[in-house]
Write a structure and sequence with these properties.
alpha/beta; 7-stranded mixed sheet; 442 residues; Metallo-beta-lactamase, Chain A
């Protein structure tokens, strides 16, 4: 190399990358300047007169491709070499860059040794621009990283998220139409809450997995929470054992209620035709312990003996409350209502029960307009449910027990209003709509 230093212009809008390249090249004896965008590049071509431009593609002011087009249009442009240095690694881009006269291409992130060789090669020989080689090479990782789902972790899955009655047509496809059912699994221990129509699909999965004992908890015995049980296939298979829990009812016990579903006038088979071992329990302990799963329960504001659940497993707390008319009859603003307000005193037990829950699967069935006509039906207005989430310091809220009249578009709009109310009352937590099949690993 002669005593006259070769001039190289680095064009890159990321300062750290530009400075690294400059450090390498000055160490190799080149005279180097930097331009941080395409417009500055065109100015320095005139003032600095480089012999080689190391050019980024995605830049502000003037795109790297436009720089190459302008350079090619100049009479003296062909005397200036261009090596494109980019994070883009696409064959179509390489073909276009080659057509515009680039001598070579370097893929980011920069390997200093390879970078020096490329520049040295440019000034010593005519480089061969091999597009296919650029595509095949990629990064220098020794192997492909493929993340795997750890299915040994606790699994939460919603099988049904509707209230009142199942629904089915194209307008309900996104959220689904099955009535209430949730499963929580920790190894071989499985807890199911509610036996709405969603439990049918859960039972089909259980047949494949051959679990022995299944624990089913019923929040209350209205149709939408028990109507799927006659179609629960594991109950018909010898070798399965079902433990069915419910709170003390105002009328019949849980076994009598389930047996009533199999009356000959309603159903073609009887409870006695189920070949699994069935055990019915009135919940007494609090919590009920199933292996490493603790199921706490509390009575909620809903007609009849309705309870909500709080499940503690590993280091997580999951609450499941599908039927709860929080602040029954209140239609005012949630703004300014604190835990010390007189209005809240009668709700203290529920707030304390849910306080600090990690994942709250809870209802907000009615819009405020709808609630005016449905006070006393046992479900919360949207804004009252938002206030409960705030007062109970809920960390994440999944809204469930969707009204059968609310289609996908309606539920999305309702969710947006929910987020707005939460923001206005100063509690903008993560909130989403439940849907049939929603699964999380904790």
């Amino acid at each position: 190399m002669s005593d006259v230093k070769k001039k190289i212009l680095i064009v890159d809008d990321v300062e750290s990358i530009a400075l690294l390249m400059k450090l390498i090249l000055t160490g190799e004896g080149f005279e180097v300047e930097i331009a941080h965008d395409g417009k500055m590049c065109m100015e320095k071509i005139t003032s600095f007169q480089p012999e080689l431009i190391i050019l980024d593609i995605m830049m502000p002011e003037l795109h790297g491709i436009d720089v190459m087009k302008r350079l090619k249009a100049r009479e003296t442009g062909s005397k200036i070499g261009v090596i494109v240095c980019t994070a883009k690694n696409y064959k179509t881009d390489f073909e276009f860059i080659k057509e515009l006269g680039a001598s070579d291409i370097i893929i980011k992130p920069i390997n200093p040794s390879e970078f020096k060789n490329k520049i040295s090669e440019y000034f010593s020989v005519t480089p061969h621009f091999d597009i296919d080689k650029k595509i095949e090479k990629g990064l220098d990782d020794p192997e492909i990283y493929i993340p795997q789902l750890d299915k040994e972790r606790v699994r939460l899955k919603l099988w049904g998220t509707r209230g009142s009655i199942p629904v089915s047509n194209a307008k309900f496809m996104r959220h689904g139409g099955n009535t209430s059912c949730l499963s929580i699994e920790d190894g071989e221990n499985i807890v199911i809450i509610d036996a709405g129509s969603g439990i049918r699909d859960q039972g089909m999965e259980m047949l494949d997995r051959k679990y022995g004992k299944i624990n089913i908890f019923i929040g209350h015995t209205h149709w939408d929470h028990i109507q799927g049980f006659p179609f629960y296939l594991p109950a018909y298979v010898p070798g399965f054992e079902l433990a069915i829990y419910a709170a003390s009812s105002f009328g019949k016990d849980i076994k009598a209620i389930f047996q009533g579903q199999f009356d000959k006038d309603y159903f073609p088979v009887q409870l006695e035709d189920m070949k699994a071992r069935l055990n019915f329990f009135t919940i007494a302990e609090n919590p009920v312990v199933i292996g490493g799963i603790k199921i706490y329960w509390e009575y909620m504001n809903h007609p009849g003996a309705a309870i909500g659940f709080k499940i503690k497993v590993k280091d997580k707390t999951i609450a499941y409350v599908t039927d709860n008319e929080f602040l029954c009859g209140y239609q005012g603003t949630p703004h300014g209502i604190s835990s010390g307000s007189d209005l809240i005193e009668s709700q203290r037990k529920i707030i304390d029960f849910l306080y600090g829950t990690d994942i709250y699967i809870g209802e907000a069935q009615y819009t405020n307009e709808e609630y005016s006509f449905k006070i006393g039906w046992g479900h919360s207005s949207l804004s009252n449910a938002c206030l409960l989430a705030k007062l109970a310091n809920i960390k994440k809220w999944i809204i469930t027990h969707h009204d059968p009249a609310h289609d996908d578009e309606f539920l999305q709009n309702k969710l947006n209003v929910t987020k707005k109310v939460l923001s206005e009352i100063g509690y903008a937590i993560e909130v989403s709509n439940a849907f049939d099949g929603l699964t999380e690993y904790l």
